[in-house]
Amino acid sequence: MKKLVPRILAAALVLLGSVAAAAQTKPAKAAAAPKTTQAAPSDDLQQFRQNFIKAAEDYRASLQELAATYDTALQKAKDQHEKLKGLYTDGLIARVEFEASEKTVADAQAKVEDLRKQMAQADETLAAARKPVEPVVSGATFNERTDIAWTTGNARTDGLIRLNAKRFGVDPYLVFCVMHQESRFSAGATSPVGAMGLMQLMPGTAARYGVVNPYDPAQSIMGGTHYLADLLKLFGGRVDLALAGYNAGEGAVMKYGRRVPPYSETQNYVRTIGTRYAQSGVSLTAKTSARGSKNKGM
After folding, report:
1. Cα separation of 273 and 261, whole Å?
2. What are the helix and strand counts (H, E) for the chain?
């Protein structure tokens, strides 16, 4: 039974990935097409949120079904324990058998309590996801950045960053900062948990954004930049929350009330990239638009 919960969560995340992929991305063959989320950002954001909420609701419903199973198992364990208690009192069974019954009840109770905590967390995540997204400040907020020259050391990679940043409306310097932290510009990078390529896409994220080969620089930068753009829209232009979502997943940010999750890795991630990106003169917590801007010296 214990293994069912992570499997259900995985299924919910797969559902989110598959639905979002169908609604927001094109197959890899159409990657060069000019159709992007910029055409109707408000509609895309709404669809993005609805997909997440649907997956979270399905996950919550699965937990509810599992809770009924756990409650039944607990009651059976308690009934059996009461029977054995009488037998033990009458000296008809050994102490070890009676104590084993006690442990069975305790284990079943622990499962029920753990599942209730997960259901409470799922409720918090849903409540956060259903909150209206705060409007993004209109206008080219990124124009406030100071001119900062940057390069990955590879002209083709630099060009792909600028191309996709313009396509999805993301500051190219932010993409650069994320890539630096994620892979140190190594196209063949693979993390211990399975993240791949320049933008360190997990298999589910890669599939969501139509990335067939995460180690291909063009596909990786396209998928990572698109994901970053969606996160910026989802969190009202908050760069810190978008970075937290890129590292820990948008669900974790929603779970903790649209705040950077209390994970040391994620907090260090946001702090490290934030320090570098703040050199451009952008506030990480300001509500900015996900629109790129021309920047001399880049």
Report:
1. 16
2. 10, 0
**Tokens representing residue 195 in the block:** 């993240």
Q: How far apart are CA 12 and CA 100, in angstroms?
A: 36
Which residues lie closer than 8 Å to 144 by C-beta, 6 or more apart? 281, 282
Asked whether the beta carbons of 159 and 281 are under 8 A apart, the reply is: no
| pLDDT band for position 48 (cuts 50, 70, 90) | confident
Give the Cβ contact number of residue 215 at 10 Å.
16
pLDDT digits (tens, 9 = 90+) for 164-185: 999 999 999 999 999 999 999 9
Active site residues: 182
Q: Provide the whole-model pTM.
A: 0.60
- CA dist 68 and 212 (Å) reads 40
Q: Which residues contact 145 (CB under 8 A, 6 or more apart)?
A: 171, 173, 280, 281, 282, 293, 295
Phi, psi of 224, deg, nearest 5? -65, -40
Buried b (16+ CB within 10 A) or exposed e, 174-200: bbbbbbbbbbebebebeeeeebbbbbb
